[in-house]
Amino acid sequence: MNQKQIIINQIKMIAKIFPIKKVQVFKNEIVIYIQNGFLFKLLFFLKAHTMCQYKVLTAISGVDYQKKQNRFEVVYELLSIRYNSRIRVKTAINQLQLVDSCEALFPAAGWFESEVFDMFGIFFANHSNLRRILTDYGFEGHPLRKDFPLSGFVELRYDEKQKRIISEHLELPQEYRTFDFLSPWNV
User: Which of the following CATH numbers is that of domain 3-133: 3.10.310.40, 3.30.950.10, 3.30.230.10, 3.30.460.80?
Assistant: First the structure.
């Protein structure tokens, strides 16, 4: 059975069992859009079924579509070594919904889910240790959200006289500058 036939069989089988919103295929990679409530069951099926065997979770990422009603999209990327194929599973949620953690299925999901929580503020239900891992302890907000301010509000610096870290409100004065656009190499 060739790669294309394997992909077609997988899509047909999954579509019979789960209420899939949409399926796309790009260069032998399947992309499945599913409702949040069926996400964990689909991931379990993809890992355990003999015709799929997606046993490796390569990444979990988030996308912020600020203008949409379901603002966030959580993307799971899986790899089947046996069938040499990849699949992406996507689900859309709003900022108040929880996503079921797949840490019980894929141990690597613990880090990925903490990273998505830290950067986007997406909560994962039943996660063993959901916490910030990439930002400071007192950090407010989530840096990869589209509504996050680009400059920030406070500045941290070490004061040599006081021998401690000082938090100050950020000031952004910009001087009027003139630029000489002539090349310094053409003298």
Answer: 3.30.460.80
